[in-house]
Specification:
Radius of gyration: 22 Å
Shape: globular
Number of domains: 3
Number of helices: 25
Distance between the termini: 25 Å
Helix content: 25-40%
Strand order of the largest sheet: 2-1-6-3-4-5
CATH topology of the largest domain: Aldehyde Ferredoxin Oxidoreductase,  A, domain 1
CATH architecture of the largest domain: 4-Layer Sandwich
Number of strands: 17
Structural class: alpha+beta
Strand content: 5-15%
Length: about 625
């Protein structure tokens, strides 16, 4: 129950769609979504496969709670080997697409091979067909979704697609659904583009059957009450979105600024949630129009924004003078502070472009920041950048690079390969603020020690959502820990990683964990699914998934030496704020982390650990 019991397998080379039964033994061991899809990828692909080759498989996956009455049940994931990192990739998205796929009767869709020409997948309940997408190739996400909705003649269809970034092979291209929700990180959109798959359009009216409807209603209502009563999920996120963090993180000296040279940005307030809500003199409106919710979500953290129509980025472009997906904290940081840019309207425009053409704003902003560092050091010049003075704080230069990268033109082609490849090419690999080739997000590990260990050990490269220790170290959830100490952080990171893997696999949003624990989420899974889903089993599934991902990466060629941070964070002390004089002390945390994980000193899971977890 709650699993549909069906998987759609799509052979793009043959143009064939076939139905098969979900492996329920695996479903009971890995739950769904991130866990179950990764299990299929591990079993069906060679870990050494070229991510952009036809042999890499790409899986669209739902969880057992996706599409149910559980709060935040709109989540779905894209799983494959990631081209940006060469590691396991799992990118999670919200919106309405995942619930529609589940309501059409599918646990997962597995794409294999490569189509000879552009295609899209058209799904209506148990009917699935590949159709010609030649007329859609070269179009943006916005154009593609609009065209497919019109083609279907049904306003309730849901679409996931790629834009020019995915078509052109930008290594951090995203898969975008519902116009502004995205499976954003690790380059899953580039994998989709490499397969000549432009989009998936789905309509589902089958519904989702759960094991115990009354129990799910009871547990879901209790969870919704807890979310409403919590200060973060009930007030902070609905009112300010994740942007509530901009000034908070800046004040504690953990906002990476100008490619990590600094930990505080003097323009942070200009690009904050508070600034988004201010009424502009130019047109009497605010950047922030409203909040917005994904399927089944009582939190409504997403932003809807409108750019000042007189701003240089849009004054001659009416197609951007619309209400669309506004800035989240990570995007505002990466597009802003990482580049020293404090122009809120320019950042909103850049965010629109990321949604329109399918780009991860974190990697985009951080890569432009690295390029600005290279320019400052004299490693690149205007001859390389196409005449652009790529200086920190240069808003016009920043916007030009966003547009060039989105379209894959000029220097934008190089920026689209990510900061590690860019910085290596121009002789300064140390300028790349990455782990396993993925750009790290909006928390400086010199000011938040636990996030350093989180980034270093993340299976998909630097990522805050694999272990959000900020909850504890800054917000005091579930209990307050000192962000400047390393003691206890190994256990904290492990606990967050295991819990996140389980939540990601359930079909619900990680933001619920500000208010909910496994004791709240496991009962919903237990009510929806057959079998006994205790809290202990829920957490163990998360640990099993984490170790499975680790095994895949080891087989792909990663070692303990990759569990590290950029030299700048380990050697160059923070220049201001509460962490002034501090570096990240990863060496104090990593050995204890390995020990708590049950891994050897090289970071390899021991036979005992693998046996305990059934791996």
């Amino acid at each position: 129950m709650s699993w549909t019991g069906k998987i759609l397998r799509v052979d793009l080379a043959k143009g064939a769609c076939t139905t098969e039964a979900t492996n329920m033994e695996w479903a009971h061991d890995y739950m769904g979504q991130r866990g179950l899809a990764t299990k299929y990828l591990v079993e069906e692909t060679d870990p050494t496969v070229d991510p952009l080759s036809p042999d890499n498989k790409m899986i669209f996956a739902t969880g057992p709670l996706t599409g149910t009455i559980a709060p935040t049940s709109g989540r779905w994931s894209v799983v494959c080997k990631g081209p940006l990192t060469g590691a396991i990739a799992c990118s999670n998205s919200g919106g309405f697409f995942g619930a529609e796929l589940k309501n059409a009767g599918w646990d997962m869709v597995i794409f294999e091979g490569k189509s000879a020409s552009p295609v899209y997948l058209d799904i209506t309940n148990d009917q699935a067909e590949l159709k010609d997408a030649s007329d859609l190739w070269g179009k943006s996400v916005w154009e593609t979704e609009t065209a497919l909705r019109e083609r279907r003649g049904d306003p309730d269809v849901r679409v996931a697609s790629i834009g020019l970034a995915g078509e052109n092979g930008a290594l951090y291209a995203a898969v975008v659904n519902d116009m502004d929700r995205a499976a954003g990180r690790s380059g899953v959109g580039a994998v989709m583009g490499s397969k000549n798959l432009k989009a998936v359009v789905v309509r589902g009216t089958v519904g989702v059957t759960v094991n115990d409807p009354m129990a799910l209603m009871k547990t879901s209502n209790a969870a919704k009450e807890a979310l409403a009563e919590n200060a973060v999920t009930g007030t902070g996120l609905p009112t300010h979105g994740t942007q509530v963090l901009m000034n908070v993180i800046n004040e504690i000296g953990a906002l990476p600024t100008r490619n990590g040279h600094d930990v505080q940005f003097d323009g942070a307030n200009d690009i904050s949630a508070e600034a988004m809500a201010e009424v502009r003199e130019s047109d009497g409106e605010a950047n922030l129009v409203s909040n917005h919710a994904c399927f089944g979500c009582p939190i409504s953290c997403a932003r809807r924004s409108k750019i000042d129509p007189t701003h240089f980025t849009v004054k001659d472009k009416p197609q951007y003078q619309i209400v669309s997906g506004g800035l989240e904290y990570e995007a505002a940081w990466a597009l802003g502070a990482a580049n020293g840019v404090n122009d809120l309207e320019a950042l909103t425009y850049a965010n629109f472009v990321c949604n329109e053409q399918g780009l991860d704003p974190i990697s985009l902003g951080a890569t432009i920041g690295a390029a600005m560092d290279l320019y400052s050091a004299g490693a690149i010049s205007q001859e390389d950048t196409g005449g652009v003075a790529l200086e920190f704080g240069n808003t016009e230069a920043f916007v030009a690079m966003v547009e060039a990268t989105a379209c894959g033109e000029g220097f934008g082609k190089e920026l689209g390969q990510g900061s590690r490849r860019l910085c290596e090419k121009y002789g300064h690999p140390e300028f790349s603020m990455t782990v396993k080739s993925q750009e790290f997000p909006a928390y400086d590990p010199r000011g938040i020690q636990g996030m350093g260990l989180t980034y270093a050990t993340s299976n998909r490269g630097a990522c805050h959502l694999r272990s959000y220790t900020v909850a504890s170290e800054v917000l005091g959830i579930p209990e307050k820990t000192d962000p400047l100490v390393t003691e206890g952080k190994a256990g904290l990171v492990k606990a967050f990683q295991d819990a996140t893997a389980a939540v990601d696999s359930s079909g619900t949003c990680i933001f619920t964990t500000f208010a909910l624990s496994g004791e709240d989420i496991a009962p919903m899974v237990d009510a929806a699914c057959e079998g006994d889903w205790s809290v202990e089993r829920f957490v163990e599934v998360g640990e099993r998934i984490w170790n499975m991902e680790r095994q895949y990466n080891i087989a792909a060629g990663f070692t303990g030496a990759d569990d590290t941070l950029p030299e700048r964070l380990l050697k160059d002390a923070a220049k201001s704020g509460p962490a002034e004089g501090s570096v990240n002390r990863l060496d104090e945390m990593l050995p204890e982390y390995y020990e708590q994980r049950g891994w050897d000193t090289d970071g390899v899971p021991t036979a005992e650990t693998l046996g305990r977890l059934g791996l």
